[in-house]
Design goal:
By secondary structure, the chain is α+β, with helices and mostly antiparallel strands. Helices cover 51% and strands 14% of the residues. Strand 1 and strand 2 form a beta hairpin. The radius of gyration is 29 Å and the shape is elongated. The termini are far apart.
């Protein structure tokens, strides 16, 4: 509430001072309020967190806490005198030295008290299994645990930044949160009838999702797009996305399934070629050229339409390039077709 009041106060001051007009002030206020969203304030630290992030963590932590407590009670029933901490890939640095190991109950209690983030709390994914020391065999051998450590600590450079693979998972989480914030902005903008702000938010979403996919692929991480979900959000497709989608639903007259990219869309825009003209060339060509092979061994053939020509790799359907068909050439080809 205080964040909202502050945003409104800034908007009033900005309009009064002549820094911006009413529409600009309203847009900035809506954006600030939506981006912050509902937040949870932690009294001890004073820090705040988006409500959706806090709820997600608390639900997951709560389920794990219940499971660990059930295991602890079962251990008490059969006289367990120790625990084994589960092990998983991409473990946080503070828990990495201890995962997969066995401890007596007393040793584990001392360990828990020494950690800033005890096992089982604050987004910890580990399970604490009760064991009988000297009887229960470890679930993971030394080689497996070493592999987990190496996998988590492996340094990967992406876009000039070098971080461990685990640290890149935290970058994934930051991007997911940023996407949810932009989706909140888009929803608020739509409700207020601000189409400019809505499309601006969608552009940010597209950029963030592209970075997310780049990080996930380069670091060898699982992409979890469902973590970006926000109830009530519907994506606004850009001109490029609509064009690429239409091209990718196209099959040429000689049965080649088309695969278009943003690069092709950019070439089309630069050369004044419309999507409909390219689709027409691919599906109803005046002439299909012979296959050509470039210096790198890549194949392509031209589909010459009345208004556009597209060069396509017949092996994978990639559109290599496209350009306008000259009026003179189109006229000659149409004349030749009449004479056939």
């Amino acid at each position: 509430m205080y964040g909202y009041r502050d945003a409104v106060d800034v908007a009033i001051t900005s309009v009064q001072a002549g820094v911006t007009d009413y529409n600009g002030a309203i847009r900035r206020t809506m954006k600030a309020a939506a981006q912050d969203g509902l937040r949870v304030k932690y009294p001890n630290s004073g820090l705040t967190r988006r409500l959706d992030s806090a709820v997600r963590q608390n639900v997951l932590d709560g389920v794990r806490a219940v499971n660990n407590d059930v295991l602890r009670q079962l251990g008490n029933e059969y006289g367990a005198d120790g625990v084994e901490i589960s092990a998983h890939a991409l473990c946080a640095t503070d828990h990495l030295p201890y995962q997969g190991l066995q401890f007596s109950n007393r040793e584990f209690e001392e360990l828990q008290n020494s950690l800033d983030r005890p096992f089982g709390m604050w987004n910890c994914k580990h399970t604490i299994f009760p064991i009988i020391l000297g009887v229960s065999e470890p679930a993971h051998d030394a080689d497996e645990l070493r592999m987990y450590r190496e996998n988590s600590n492996a340094e990967i450079e992406i876009g000039g930044r070098k971080m461990t693979r685990y640290e890149w998972t935290q970058e994934q989480r930051r991007i997911e949160t940023a996407v949810r914030a932009q989706k909140d902005i888009a929803i608020a903008a739509k409700a207020s009838g601000d189409d400019f702000a809505r499309r601006e938010a969608q552009a940010h979403i597209n950029d963030l999702q592209a970075r997310y996919d780049k990080v996930s692929n380069a670091a060898g991480l699982d992409a979890q797009h469902e973590r970006m979900g926000v109830a009530g959000f519907r994506a606004v497709k850009t001109e490029a996305q609509l064009a690429i989608s239409k091209l990718n639903r196209t099959t040429t007259s000689d049965n080649v399934s088309i695969n278009a990219t943003v690069h092709v869309f950019d070439r089309m825009k630069e050369r004044g070629v419309s999507v409909d003209d390219v689709v027409d060339a691919l599906t109803k060509p005046l002439l299909i050229g012979k296959i050509k092979i470039d210096g790198q061994g890549r194949q392509s053939k031209q589909y010459i339409g009345e208004k556009a020509t597209a060069a396509v790799n017949p092996d994978n359907g990639n559109i290599v390039s496209t350009w306008p068909t000259s009026t003179k050439r189109a006229a000659k080809l149409k004349e030749a077709l009449k004479e056939q």
